[in-house]
Amino acid sequence: MLLNMVGAGTTGDGFPQFTYTGQYQLIDDGKVNKKQNWRIKFLSSGTLTFTKAPGAIDVFLVGGGGSARYGGGGGGYTFTGLVSAQGKTAYTVTIGAGGTSSGNGGNTTAFGLTAAGGKGTGGKDGAAGGSGGGGFRKGAGGSNGGNGSAGEDGGAGAGQGKTTREFGESSGTLYAGGGAGAYGTAGSGGGGAGASSYTAATCDGKVNTGGGGGGIEYSSNGVAKGGSGIAVIRNHRS
Fold this sequence. Notes:
By secondary structure, the protein is mainly beta. Helix content is 0%, strand content 25%.
């Protein structure tokens, strides 16, 4: 259940007590043994301050996706960690921007942890990332940490080799899909599709997924952007 999508705000009643200066979503994950489970998804950069210390929290970060020209951009890399958050301490959360002009995606950082942005590409080979980009002409973007596939005229981009699902769990939301090479199929988790000949398709990676941009056949159709990253925290679960 989604509880909030505004900027600065506070809450309680078993949920964390905090303020945040950017855009976020607070999610009710239900109760287990009378303990309230919750998640916060940070959609834009800002400053997080807990009014009351929440103790141990799980942190999941996705970097911004890489931009693409012909081959597909790499999805953002992911990172899962555990920190002890303090009350009345200002924590800077930076959401990595999607890459532009064939460039790399930006890093996503929070609590001293970092997930790097996926690689961009101006050539025919797919770029490396959390999931790899597909090669030029029909190469598919990788999914869930896998490599992209080679195209008819471009090699595959390498993935990180481990799951890109939220908190590394099999039931978690999938992020960081690789962008397809031109004519190819996008990687699941926000990757951009490859454009067909003479088609000005929307090939950008999806916002707040870290998806890589999809390749485009002709330069007159522009360069696809990578999708912005995301940061997610939750009460620690063993």
